[in-house]
Amino acid sequence: MFRKSFLLFLTVCSFQLLAAQDNPLKSFPKGSTPKEVGKRLADHFVGSRHDLYAGKWMHYASVCAWNGALDYALKTNDKKLIKQLENKFEPFFTYEKSLLPPMNHVDYNMFGSLALKLYQINKDERYKELGLKYADTQWEVPANAKAEEKAWANKGYSWQTRLWIDDMYMITVVQGEAYKVTGDKKYLDRAAKEMVMYLDELQRPNGLFYHAPDVPYYWARGDGWMAVGMPDLMRMMPEDHPDRPRIMEGYLKMMKSLKEHQQPSGMWNQLIDEPTFWAETSGTAMFAYAFIVGVQEGWLDAAEYAPAARKAWLAMIPFIDERNNVTEICIGTGKKNDKQYYYDRPRNPGDLHGQAPYLWCAAALLGK
């Protein structure tokens, strides 16, 4: 009897080992599974205070982490966590209403993505109404708009266009969630048209993106917004959408370059192409997410990119401290044409710029 049980145990272990080898994104050591890590970070977020702009209104990094925690909760069917995340939002309709961001900037308008994601869960019309206001005002030109803003609008783009690579997450996430909620193709077309223009204007020949046209440095988190925005948008797009081939071209070009710049440790550095710079966690998590989604959707060669994504995920885990704060996160960073400036940027444990993409990765690794 013992011999049969032992042989069965060995057989099961062998199958698990083969499964890990066949699909590196399906099996992880205890303590580093996406379910365990996601739970740690999501629970930590639920209990945290709002991250605010100068004490005034919700910061986009908090929205990103909130969206990630919701994605994780949905993947694990954690009803308690879903309810906690919903309860955390409810005061925005009453005594925390003053914390709602104004509808006049890409970083502020993306708040609508959270309301729309929650609406898809609870079907509460208040969430839909609020979220769509943020999506619609991104294209509704205000009376006091500047000439440059009106010029973008006249070309069919958002008046909030500024040609910062961050925008290709900030704009596409709220327009994408509006499309999911309404089924109205105008939201998808807006996001796609904007993405194509940003790719045409900003992507470098090597597939990466400068922090700004006048700042020739490949800052990891800046590039990370593009790396996440493209696959998230393409997941919503029908195969025959006219803008899809151009976005896919830009995505594949970027992924190839990122694969080449991944450090032996599995991480990416604060400046992607600077091997002597420090490993930065928010950018690494964003790039890992882009690899994971690409493999799952069949856009990236699994034999090549799945091991790279696994290596990144396992390298990321030790940067989570005992308080469930991700460490080595570059703080919010404006552009500056000075390489040393990027090396010297402070690192803020628990900064939601990093907590968020860790949650995105955990949710993505739990399957489509």
UniProtKB/TrEMBL annotation:
One of its GO terms (biological process) is carbohydrate metabolic process. Substrate binds at D166. SUPFAM superfamilies: Six-hairpin glycosidases. Keywords: Hydrolase, Signal. It comes from the Bacteria. InterPro entries: 6-hairpin_glycosidase_sf, 6hp_glycosidase-like_sf, Glyco_hydro_88, PolySaccharide_Degr_Enz. Pfam families: Glyco_hydro_88. The keyword Cytoplasm does not apply. Gene3D superfamilies: 1.50.10.10. The keyword Hydrolase applies. One of its GO terms (molecular function) is hydrolase activity. Residues 1-19 form the signal peptide. PANTHER family: UNSATURATED RHAMNOGALACTURONAN HYDROLASE (EUROFUNG). This is Glycosyl hydrolase. It comes from Sphingobacterium gobiense.
